[in-house]
Amino acid sequence: MKTVVENIPQIKINIVKELVDLLKAKRTVLIADIGNIPGSQFQQISKKLRGKALVKVPKKNLFERAIDDFGKKELIGLKEKFFGASALLFSDLDSFELSAELLDKKSPAKAKPGQTAPTDLEIPAGPTDLTPGPAISELGALGIQIMIQGGKIEIKEPRVVAKEGEAISQGAADMLSKLNILPFSIGFNPVCAYDAEDNKLYLEIKIDKEETLEALKYAYARALPFAGNIGYITTDTVKFMVQKAGSQEKRLIKVISGEVDDVENDTPTLSGVPSEEGKESEKEEPKVDAGAGLASLFG
């Protein structure tokens, strides 16, 4: 039986060796989707990443061979994510920092016919720079009402020209372009990454900064009153806790002396606004009961 020796071109051997060397040398290898990016813009983004990441676009089989030669099992999951128009980014940044860099490098882009609308695409009401002419019939075809003001077209009412998830028509794409409405963004889309320092494969690496910030704000808003209510002392809660102790002292004195316990005015909150319990007490003036008053103070 003859042994078949595959004659591998030297250029492919060199590419695999370079990829293996980069896998060994760099902290992060990130796979990014580069579909629908014009060549000129691809080069611009790659230049902006100089000093932060090295961009490579090898063939899938060569990347898979490099992973096999490197021999680290944690990297095997990258094989399934490298398909279509993909690029590899090698960097000393951690995975999430590199992902954030890619999202920051995105730029607005025009809508093209046949693309799926990412959200409801609306042409707003108001003045435009369009002059009367063909644009009048083009706007009319989209169901947009107009009027002429100062020799320019003004749109009377806003109009959705493509609903979220629907294909964008030729007319809608053309009008969005003429009005300089850019509903898309072009750039490297992070898909997944391997962090050598953490020895972890992150299959979800794309971060929505605004959504993450809102989630942090929500968590903080919930955590602060909770910490205050359980008596967890921090620089943020200690003032509230001192105020609450003072309020409880006043309430205790009122209960003992037989005065009406005005919860609304005496109960502090972390936001400085009386609690909902205080508001409820306003509806019906309570009868003074010393035993009940003490129970409300000390649980």
Quick overview:
Helix content is 43%, strand content 16%. It has helices spanning 10-25, 39-48, 60-70, 77-81, 95-104, 134-141, 170-178, 209-229, 238-257, 263-266, 276-281, 290-298, and strands at residues 28-33, 54-56, 86-91, 107-109, 121-123, 126-127, 146-149, 152-155, 159-162, 184-186, 189-195, 200-202. The model is unreliable at 1-5 and 271-299 (pLDDT under 50).
Please write the CATH class name of the largest domain.
Answer: Alpha Beta
End-to-end separation in angstroms reads 88 Å
Morphology call: flat
Based on secondary structure, the structural category is alpha+beta
The CATH superfamily of the largest domain turns out to be: Ribosomal protein L10, N-terminal RNA-binding domain
Rounded mean pLDDT is 82
The total beta strand count reads 12
- Give the spatial strand order of the biggest sheet: 2-3-1-11-12
CATH fold-level name of the largest domain: Alpha-Beta Plaits
Q: What string, H for helix and E for strand, traces the elements in order?
A: HEHEHHEHEEEHEEEHEEEHHHHH
Radius of gyration: 32 Å
Number of helices: 12
User: Biggest sheet: strands, sense, closure?
Assistant: 5 strands, antiparallel
> Could you say what the CATH architecture of the largest domain is?
2-Layer Sandwich
